[in-house]
Amino acid sequence: MGEKMLHRVYVLTPLMAVLALLLGCEDTPVSENADQLQPLYSTSFEVPPDTAGWVIIGGTITTEGSPFGGARSFRQYGGDVIAGSYKELPPVGEDSTYFIQFYGRVLKSGGRGIVILAPERPSPIPAIRVNFDDTTWGYHTGTGSFPPGTNIQLHCVGLGIGNSALMDEIRVYTVKE
Fold first, then answer.
1. I need a surface site. Which of 81, 100, 153, 162 has the fewest CB within 10 A?
2. 57-69 per-position pLDDT tens digit
3. What's the CATH number of domain 32-175, 2.102.10.10, 2.40.37.10, 2.60.120.260, 3.40.50.150?
4. How far is residue 61's CA from residue 73's CA, in Å, rounded to a whole number?
């Protein structure tokens, strides 16, 4: 490669990186019906208060954030036993439809992560489960409903021996109908 071409590569590469960062730093997408969404809970795992109220089992805060988050995310370790961390959310009110969104990835192929919004105790009421298994950060969403008065929990689960799931920018909304 000629000296002139090398100079162009050295100049263009940092410029392209800055441009990519600027274009990628948008707010997390919400939903087509954003005007119907009432924020219930959100976390980006950046500072200690972001994990207030979480029961963390086999998980930790890591210094890898999603492209649309900050510098940190939540890492849930996988294993041969299903382990998960969770946070209790307010009981379901009259607005019983929920929308969840987050970014997630697994560290190695073959692993899987799941973000679940579920009744507090085993129940015949179906949970909202959002699975992901890609090694690159992806945007994930899920929607579902619970009867009014149901106590719900937000769960982060990692599956796969020797694997971990990373989750960031978790947001839970109630949907006004």
1. 81
2. 999 999 999 998 8
3. 2.60.120.260
4. 6
pLDDT tens-place string over residues 71-93: 999 999 987 666 689 999 999 98
Cα-only R_g, the chain: 19
DSSP-assigned letter for residue 49: G
- Least Cα distance to 167 among 104, 113, 84 occurs for 104
Closest-CA residue to 74 (of 85, 82, 89, 83): 85
Structural contact between residues 107 and 177, judged by C-beta atoms closer than 8 angstroms = no
Cα torsion 129, 57, 42, 74: sign? negative
Rounded CA gap, 67 and 74, in Å?
Answer: 14
d(CA 84, CA 99): 20
Please state the pTM of the whole predicted model: 0.79
Q: How confident is the model at residue 34 (pLDDT cuts 50, 70, 90)?
A: confident
